[in-house]
């Protein structure tokens, strides 16, 4: 072998470029790995952290049950009961070919009262989705049945459902929630934030075997609060029963009853008819959800005459013993006629209220300046909210214009030309009976808190308010026997108004009665409105007064208020003897 061949076969003589190529490849690989590591750890570390969290981080939610609504005595009006929701995981269903279990799916469709084709189509149309609601808030019995079907991908989830034990009796006041437990109407909507609360959550990390290895954070739940209403469900039930019976008996379109505590402004009952079942609202017309006691406005008719009389007493153009000459029983104001059914001659203010004389009320109204009369109507709370803050409350309709004709002032004096809610009428009679102090109405029970200055206001003198309240007892005793309550002295005033239509008045009526008891120490005010009674009976004394009597009787007994029928009017008659009646001629007072 020659020297040249030996030199070529020597492994140490391999071309150096191969060696450098290998080093370059290794350096490139290490450089790429270092660059990638630097990029991940320095420039974009969040992505890997997110991926890691998806595999190990878990959140355990802690839901909070919606608060209850109870009456003043703790009776439950709205509660949350445990239910379950059926949901599907289409991906699991498709991966396990669960749709082949046709009998099981038919059973599922039957128990959910759904069409099987539509039910399965929801899964087929979204095969990769991981969550679909099939039915919300089913009963435990249905949930157990579905659980036994053991269909892969069909799951149950615990939720709560709102239940209203009193049903239609308190439906308008309490309202209801939607399927997600959000308040939609009534108290449920008004206090939705308070009743809802906030759920808690615990964030923790798990290892590959599912064991908790680290608690990251804990958010404590904020418990929902219960709402205690001023309503007494016993009185509410009495009011609803009597109202519903009257609406049906007189074939009326609707009706409302409001009962309130004269001294606190607390609403003890507020009910309407027709009502609805809040536990099953299917096929219920939307107009039935309306709380007519605060949303619907009516001309109050003769229930306003005590306010007109009180205004004249306050101004001083008349006294409690004044005699007003209403002869000849009619008069013309600006070409328009004001009249009584007959010539009643000379009447005292008490007799004007007892006979419901339009002539007498008109003369009282025209004896005071226009602005003074209007101010007293506004002071009584008309054209303003009552303070309940209930959803949908109307402020009514009371014009505040500069020009009023004498005829318009006359009609205003007997309750035409303005429109108010039953709640507003309640507030006025409450102010009249408690000595002239107007209070805000409240639907939440007061717990002995101090009354804020803005929640009460003196609008009439105590002397004149008490005088008119005593006159209302005579109105009931001599003119409205159907409003009497055995064992109690009762005062009140009827009202019958014709419903306004476009261009004037139609043929439908509204029957009203507003009253207080016991007269010796007024405690309770009750207002009854029957809208559009049919047939021959439509006056307030015939339609609304009997409802008032029965509701007032029930309220007085529930509240354990002592009868006062033995209290005589001796003191009242003594005052009359001491201050004899005098006849005065009332003329129009021009502002």
TrEMBL record:
The chain crosses the membrane at residues 20-39. One of its GO terms (biological process) is FtsZ-dependent cytokinesis. Pathway: Cell wall biogenesis; peptidoglycan biosynthesis. Residues 63-214 form the Penicillin-binding protein dimerisation domain. Its EC number is 3.4.16.4. GO terms for cellular component: plasma membrane. Coiled coil: none annotated. It is a single-pass membrane protein. Keywords: Carboxypeptidase, Cell cycle, Cell division, Cell inner membrane, Cell membrane, Cell shape, Cell wall biogenesis/degradation, Hydrolase, Membrane, Peptidoglycan synthesis, Protease, Septation, Transferase, Transmembrane, Transmembrane helix. It catalyses: Preferential cleavage: (Ac)2-L-Lys-D-Ala-|-D-Ala. Also transpeptidation of peptidyl-alanyl moieties that are N-acyl substituents of D-alanine. The active site is at 302 (acyl-ester intermediate). It is found in: Cell inner membrane; Membrane. PANTHER family: PEPTIDOGLYCAN D,D-TRANSPEPTIDASE, PEPTIDOGLYCAN D,D-TRANSPEPTIDASE FTSI. Belongs to the transpeptidase family. FtsI subfamily. This is Peptidoglycan D,D-transpeptidase FtsI. It comes from Colwellia ponticola. The gene is ftsI.
């Amino acid at each position: 072998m020659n020297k040249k061949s030996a030199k070529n076969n020597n492994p140490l003589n391999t071309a150096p470029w191969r060696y450098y190529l290998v080093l370059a490849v290794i350096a490139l690989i290490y450089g790429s790995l270092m660059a990638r590591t630097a990029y991940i750890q320095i420039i974009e570390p969040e992505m890997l952290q997110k991926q890691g969290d998806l595999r190990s981080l878990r959140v355990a939610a802690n839901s909070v049950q919606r608060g209850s609504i109870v009456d003043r005595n703790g009776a439950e009006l709205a509660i949350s009961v445990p239910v379950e929701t059926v949901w599907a995981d289409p991906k699991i269903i498709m991966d396990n070919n669960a749709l082949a279990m046709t009998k099981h799916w038919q059973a599922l469709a039957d128990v959910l009262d759904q069409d099987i084709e539509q039910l399965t189509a929801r899964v087929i149309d979204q095969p990769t989705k991981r969550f679909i609601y099939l039915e919300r808030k089913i009963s435990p019995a249905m949930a157990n049945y579905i659980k036994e079907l053991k269909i892969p991908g069909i799951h149950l989830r615990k939720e709560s459902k709102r239940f209203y034990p009193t049903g239609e009796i308190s439906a308008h006041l309490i309202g209801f929630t939607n399927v997600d437990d959000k308040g939609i109407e009534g108290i449920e909507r008004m206090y939705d934030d308070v009743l809802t609360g906030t759920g808690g959550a615990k964030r923790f990390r798990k290892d590959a075997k599912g064991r908790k290895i680290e608690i990251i954070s804990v958010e404590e739940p904020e418990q929902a609060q219960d709402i205690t209403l001023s309503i007494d469900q016993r009185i509410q039930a009495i009011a609803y029963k009597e109202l519903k019976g009257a609406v049906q008996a007189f074939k009326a379109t609707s009706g409302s009853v409001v009962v309130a505590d004269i001294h606190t402004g607390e609403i003890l009952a507020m009910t309407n008819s027709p009502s609805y079942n809040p536990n099953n609202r299917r096929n219920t017309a939307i107009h039935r959800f309306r709380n007519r006691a605060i949303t619907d406005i009516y001309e109050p008719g003769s229930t306003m005459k005590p306010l007109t009389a009180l205004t004249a007493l306050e101004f001083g153009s008349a006294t409690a013993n004044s005699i007003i000459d209403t002869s000849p029983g009619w008069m013309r104001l600006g070409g328009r006629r004001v009249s009584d059914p007959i010539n009643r001659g000379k009447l005292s203010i008490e007799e004007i209220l007892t006979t419901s004389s339009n002539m007498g009320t008109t003369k009282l109204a025209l004896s005071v300046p226009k602005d003074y009369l209007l101010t007293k109507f506004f002071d009584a709370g008309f054209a303003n909210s009552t303070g309940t803050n209930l959803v949908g409350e109307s402020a009514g309709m009371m014009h505040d214009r500069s020009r009023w004709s004498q005829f318009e002032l006359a009609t205003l004096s007997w309750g035409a030309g303005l429109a108010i809610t039953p709640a507003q009428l309640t507030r006025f009679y409450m102010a009249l009976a408690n000595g002239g102090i107007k209070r805000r109405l409240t639907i939440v029970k007061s717990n002995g808190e101090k009354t804020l200055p803005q929640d009460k206001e003196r609008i009439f003198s105590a002397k004149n308010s008490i005088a008119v309240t005593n006159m209302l007892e005579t109105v009931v005793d001599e003119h409205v026997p159907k409003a009497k309550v055995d064992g109690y002295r009762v005062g009140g005033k009827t009202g019958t108004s014709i419903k306004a239509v476009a261009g004037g008045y139609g043929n439908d009526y509204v029957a009203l009665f507003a009253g207080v008891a016991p007269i010796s120490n007024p405690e309770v005010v009750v207002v009854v409105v029957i809208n559009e009674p049919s047939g021959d009976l439509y006056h307030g004394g015939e339609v609304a007064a009997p409802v008032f009597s029965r509701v007032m009787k029930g309220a007085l007994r529930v509240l354990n208020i002592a009868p006062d029928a033995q209290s005589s009017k001796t003191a009242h008659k003594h005052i009359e003897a001491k201050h004899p009646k005098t006849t005065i001629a009332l003329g129009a007072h021009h502002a």
